[in-house]
UniProtKB/TrEMBL annotation:
Gene Ontology biological process terms from the UniProt entry: amino acid metabolic process; carboxylic acid metabolic process
Required cofactor(s): pyridoxal 5'-phosphate
Pfam families attached to this UniProt entry: Pyridoxal_deC
Keywords noted in UniProt: Decarboxylase, Lyase, Pyridoxal phosphate
Gene Ontology molecular function: any one: pyridoxal phosphate binding
UniProt superkingdom: Bacteria
N6-(pyridoxal phosphate)lysine modifications at: K292
InterPro entries reported for this sequence: Aromatic_deC, PyrdxlP-dep_de-COase, PyrdxlP-dep_Trfase, PyrdxlP-dep_Trfase_major, PyrdxlP-dep_Trfase_small, Pyridoxal-P_BS
Protein name (Swiss-Prot/TrEMBL): Glutamate or tyrosine decarboxylase
Keyword Lyase: yes
Family: Belongs to the group II decarboxylase family.
Length: 475
């Protein structure tokens, strides 16, 4: 005897088909790039109770379409230029639907042998792009750059120091490092007082001369330098640290070199490719987000290490109830080299996208993003009172407004207010960041559906908002 459940009475096949078709037909450029819900709507959903007998599904779908999914920041909008947007391919979306529908548990080879074979294949493919031998390199797909950085930092920690001596461990970052790295240090047990922030040069790259001095002094003071985190494509400016010189320093001090390439490393697939990252083949580990410039939906990222054995040393555990599903020695299961046991088959959607589009389409898309950034730089350079703060690099640039009759504080306020007005208008998202203690607009132009008219229209509107804010300040 089986129970009859309400779900079986729903016409889910047609409902799912209709919903998918509706989203496929959307023109995102006609929708607001960002929209914030009212306090009343927020209160409605925060206090909504779970009904005893359930509600009509079409009523729920109406709430999803008209409210819940309407008031969001649309990272895949062609005029979403902040936060390093995630312009997910519809092919990736297809992969999400298929892997979710099959509810794949991708922890070990026997649960999902072909999805995991594909994951191993892609890790090898991207390791090759880094210039690493397929063996002994290895890695695993994770949720995002935060998990990737944490996984790499734990691996480096366990390779370079005994846990009983962790209070002596020092680690090194620049002030342009992503905040997920400092969070990962905390989780991995590194003491906050032992985190060294290395200054950057005028191009916002880590100063390698200062790095060497700080490490040398730490060793004299009895510390154990464990890890340097360099960046290949900083969030603020797209800057790439001097990996060759940093690698020289790390080798001389027996220190692990991790590169946070969550955003930038996808440019390895561009026309310029490896020449953008000289020395990348010398690092010990990298983080790499596919849900940024590899055009995947959230979440899909990788951590890759030059020596897979190091990850195995940190994350492999015996579990009696897994004995029957553990793989043979020649296949290392994902759960043995990462934190997750329960995990989806994240690599499958990336594999679908790569197989359908091919390298040439990826190369064209990534190159186009850089072209848009260079166009933005060219247009801004001709705008009155606007100045480029960081040139177009890896499809990112920063610029600021400086009116000669206003103070620095007033110019900062003008720019912040203009950015808020832009987002509130729904036309585009161009939020500010801070460089050298000044407010700047930062734009990331990686969406292949962004047009040159989108760029020019956004800059013209931003300039209009700024001019209006200047008048408000001066009145």
């Amino acid at each position: 005897m089986t129970m009859e459940f309400k779900e079986k009475d729903l016409d889910l096949q047609n409902i799912i088909t209709d919903e998918v078709n509706k989203y496929l037909k959307r023109d995102l450029s006609t929708l607001p790039a960002s929209r914030v819900a009212s306090p009343e709507l927020i209160n409605k959903y925060e206090k909504m109770e779970v009904p005893e007998d359930g509600r009509d599904i079409y009523e729920i779908l109406n709430e999803l379409d008209s409210e819940i999914l309407e008031y969001i920041h649309r990272g895949n909008h062609p005029r979403s230029f902040s936060f390093i947007p995630g312009p997910g391919s519809r092919l990736s979306w297809l992969g999400d639907i298929l892997t979710t529908a099959n509810n794949i548990h991708a922890s070990n080879f026997k649960n999902a042998n072909l999805p995991i074979s594909i994951e191993r294949n892609l890790i090898n493919y991207f390791a090759g792009k880094l210039g690493w031998p397929i063996k002994p390199a290895g890695g695993v797909f994770v949720s995002g750059g935060s998990a990737a950085n944490l996984t790499a930092l734990v691996t480096a920690r366990d390779e370079k120091i005994e846990l009983k001596d962790l209070h002596k461990a020092t680690v090194y970052i620049s002030d342009q490092v992503h905040h997920s790295v400092t969070k990962a240090f905390h989780i991995a047990g590194f003491l906050k007082k032992n985190i060294r922030r290395v200054p950057v040069d005028e191009d916002f790259k880590m100063r390698v001369d200062e790095l060497d001095k700080i490490i040398t002094q730490d060793k004299k003071d009895g510390y154990t330098p464990v890890l340097v985190v360099a960046t290949a494509g900083t969030t603020n400016t797209g800057a790439v640290d001097d990996l060759n010189k940093i690698a020289d320093i790390c080798e001389s001090h027996d220190t692990w070199l991790h590169v946070d390439g969550a955003y930038g490393l996808s440019h390895l697939l561009s026309t310029k490719g490896r020449e953008l990252f000289p020395g990348i083949e010398r690092v010990d580990s990298v983080s790499w987000d596919a849900h940024k410039l590899l055009f995947q939906t959230y979440s899909c990222a990788m951590v890759i290490v030059k020596e897979k054995q190091h990850m195995l040393n940190s994350f492999s555990e015996e579990a009696e109830y897994l004995t029957d599903v553990q793989s043979d020695d020649d296949v290392i299961d994902p759960e043995m080299i990462g934190m997750e046991l329960t995990r989806p088959a994240r690599a499958l959607k990336l594999w679908i996208t790569l197989q359908v589009l091919g390298e040439s389409q990826y190369r064209a898309r990534i190159d186009y993003g850089q072209e848009l950034a260079e166009l933005t730089e060219s247009v801004v350079s001709e705008m009155e009172h606007w100045h480029i703060t960081s040139k177009a690099s890896l499809s990112i640039l920063s610029f600021k407004y400086v009116h000669p009759s206003l103070t620095a504080a007033q110019n900062n306020k003008v720019l912040s207010n203009a950015a808020q007005r832009m987002a509130s208008s729904g036309y585009a998202v161009t939020y500010t960041t801070e460089l050298n203690k000044e407010k700047v607009i930062r734009m990331c132009t990686i969406n292949p559906e962004t047009t040159k008219d989108d760029i020019i229209g956004t800059l013209n509107r931003l300039n209009e908002f700024v001019i209006d804010e200047v008048e408000i300040v001066r009145s």
